[in-house]
Design a protein that fits this description.
The complex is a heterodimer of chains A (408) and B (223).
Chain A: H1 3-16, H2 18-55, E1 61-66, H3 75-79, H4 85-94, E2 98-112, E3 117-125, H5 128-133, E4 137-140, H6 145-150, E5 154-157, H7 159-166, H8 169-172, E6 176-179, E7 182-190, H9 206-209, E8 211-215, H10 216-224, E9 232-237, H11 243-258, E10 263-267, H12 274-311, H13 313-321, H14 326-363, H15 371-397, H16 401-406
Parallel strand pairs in A: 3-8, 5-7
Antiparallel strand pairs in A: 1-9, 1-10, 2-3, 2-6, 2-9, 4-7, 5-8, 6-7
Helix pairs in contact in A: 1-2, 1-14, 2-12, 2-14, 2-15, 12-15, 14-15
Chain B: E1 4-15, E2 18-30, E3 35-39, H1 46-53, E4 61-66, E5 69-70, H2 76-86, E6 87-90, H3 102-113, H4 118-131, H5 147-159, E7 165-169, H6 177-192, E8 196-200, H7 204-207, E9 212-217, E10 220-221
Parallel strand pairs in B: 3-8, 3-9, 6-7, 7-8
Antiparallel strand pairs in B: 1-2, 1-4, 4-5, 9-10
Helix pairs in contact in B: 3-4, 3-5, 5-6
The chains are: A alpha+beta (408), B alpha/beta (223).
Chain lengths: 408, 223
Amino acid sequence: MSLLEALLVGFSEARRHLGQTLLSLLGLILGTGSIVTVLALFGGQTKQTQEFLQEVGGAGTVIVRDREQSERPTARELASDRLTYRDAEYLKDHATTLTAVAPGWASRMEYQTPKTHFNGQIIGTTPDYAVINDIRPMAGRYLSDLDVRRQARVMVLGWRFADSLFTAPEAALGQIVQLGGRAFVVVGVMEREEFYFAAWAGNSLAYRNQRAYIPITTAFSQYTGEDQGLSFLTLKAANPMGGRLATEQVTAMLRLRHGVEDFDVTPSGVGSSDDAQFFMLFNFIFLVVGIVSLIAGGVVIANILLASVVERVREFGTRMALGATGFQIFAQVLVQVAIIAVVGGLAGLGLGSALTGTVAFFMKMPAAVTPEIATLAIVTSLSVGVIAGLYPAYRAARLAPVEALRYG
Amino acid sequence: MALIDAAALTKVYQLGQVEVPALRGVDVQVEEGEYVAITGPSGSGKSTLMHILGCLDSATSGTYRLAGEDVSGLSRRALARVRNHKVGFVFQTFNLMPRMTIDENVALPLQYRGGLSRRARLRRARALLERLGLDQRIGHRPDELSGGERQRVAVARALVGEPAMLLVDEPTGNLDSEAGAEVLRTFREVHEAGNTIVMVTHDMQVAGQAQRAIRIADGKVAA
């Protein structure tokens, strides 16, 4: 009996035992359905996360921060000036792997106009910051090299602050705002930045709309004096794929300047968004649920098949009397379960697609059942079925013909 | 040489610690074309003998040659092949596959043999059903047939592979007397067409249909 023959027989058997077949399917349909749903959502989320990372800097963006001082710092550690503006200038002049260097100084201060006042973040930085983060002003201009050189008291407002201080972004241009008691002229207002992981989730980039940018040199001269320490140093590799090379060069250069590795160099986006992490966790839980239901489905199939083998002992005995070998009986049972499993996989795929569509629609999340996911679903279902069928098939094949004929 | 040539067959069943002898040295010879009944009371060992002659089971000792082939000590797989090619079983309870049509049932042994297309197998099955007067029933399921008709389907299934012998177990046990007579008539016709039949029964009237009877008692051939 050829494989094709076995397939045909198995198929007609599955059709003949339709009730039993459908019962076996239930576990597989649910299991495959949830796996498909999870993978589709997962795929959508992964794409979202990648887009988010692109949004906050993209490939090749590297961030350097001071490492927390160890509990018992060494002399070298104590002697280091930590990350300074001079480090940034040095890298800008000497690091061949970099295309942009943006030193950053961050603080919270009181914003004050004749009408209102509140606390908010300010970032002291250079024009490169807008290049690296791919952000643009919607009115006026961003910081310029001249601003930095002249320690100009100019500021660029985030969209939200411009909106709440002056009602319209254009109206903000030329206005005076006090930052921590020092007066600055608004020369630009940034575009509104937004990113949503799901329609019901908040704007993951909202924080960027609630800040103001000033020249870093101004920040030092107005607020810190001698101390030119940086809060962060954002770098862009010359080659988008060259992040690792850039990381190595920057690490080497800074270690030489500091005499000790008291800083951390990380690619942008690593742990950068709690939202992304939350969605990953969410998907992981769903995936576990799906795998558990598949295993449960497999156990159900194995049980039902075992029961059906017992129920059909005389049938197998008769088939053996007619000349079926143990292998042919084994193949018959296995092919039957394989067909059940594929049908179950297809039904599960349908269920999963419907579920994905529903979830995507109501939660406004991007999700799609790709051909890869569909294939994986069928293959998974088939594997679960065949594995579950091995033992019952073996039991049927090992029956002694005489006892099988006498059974029942 | 005899078609069935069994010498000094014994069969011992191991029931836990106890050895139960079912056959204690049986010699059986059946010539080609013979119609032989094996009789005996229940528990005599005649079913055990039938299982061995049908290659469903192996003897504990002794030799058994079926159509010139020594089948004692063959593997499970080899025995399956011998059953498929040389033995046609007819059971007391018919043992038809309830969800298959009768032509599919009859074609089943050919499917396990391989080599013929499904179409060719079904054509042969239908020809045989026609020969046995069941042409009106082709395409029906077994439960749509009378008991006598079902047993004649089983006979067709036993014959389809052109075996060396038909091995028949209480063929009328589940039939009323009229249907039983009809089935026995079928066996007579099949025998007259040149087939060898070995029929196991405890019904002396049924055994009377055969050319000769071998009586088994207490695991031996009774004189």
